[in-house]
Specification:
The chain is mainly α. The protein contains seven helices and no strands. The longest helix is centred in the C-terminal third of the chain and has 17 residues. The protein starts with a helix and ends with a helix. The model has no long low-confidence stretch (mean pLDDT about 90).
Length: about 100
């Protein structure tokens, strides 16, 4: 299921999500984001943060108290509003992972 999510995330944005994740994770580790800034980044770049490992590390380093299931649900709603089927499917896969693993 995680491999399917990774394939879905590829090509959903013009920038490579996994390259961007390195930048966000480095800054989070340095405590450069307040919880509000961290959440804004997550909403701005959902393809980066739908990956479970990135999500867990980023939320842990920034002190955000949100589950992958809840975050993915928010992204599913945004994708539905924007009629972005690819992002919706990626968020749905992340939602299922979060639900099954209680992340």
């Amino acid at each position: 299921m995680i491999e399917d999510l990774a394939r879905m995330l590829e090509g959903t944005t013009e920038s490579e999500p996994f390259d961007k994740s390195r930048e966000y994770l480095t800054n989070a580790k340095r405590k450069e984001y307040s919880p509000e800034q961290a959440m804004n980044n997550m909403l701005k770049e959902p393809t980066v943060f739908l990956a479970p490992v990135v999500f867990i590390i980023f939320t842990s380093d920034t002190g955000l108290n949100i589950t992958l299931k809840d975050y993915a649900f928010i992204i599913m709603q945004q994708a539905k509003q924007k009629s972005n089927q690819t992002l919706f499917q990626a968020a749905k896969a992340a939602y299922e992972i979060g639900k099954e693993t209680d992340i």
